[in-house]
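Take a protein:
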Amino acid sequence: MVALLAIYNWQGADDYAKNMTLCVHPACRRQGYASVLLDSMVADMRQLGMHLFKAETRVSNLAMQALFEKLGYECTLRVERMMENPVEDGYKYELRP
């Protein structure tokens, strides 16, 4: 497996799609796979009428933060001790294309 994106579609409940996990095999990073997955997810969910996309990442995950910001996501909140194993603060992101 090169890359994986898992989302949760909250359509009808809260009307947003959330990136639950995104990973790219270390040998395949920095080749655009994550961007393609996220862009495809947004396009697919927009066809279903979704207009709000959410994601979270660790404060130490600078690569993911840079990717979200490159794709137009806005950092909306820093949450203390949001992540586990290890415990770490996290950022919440939103995209409203």
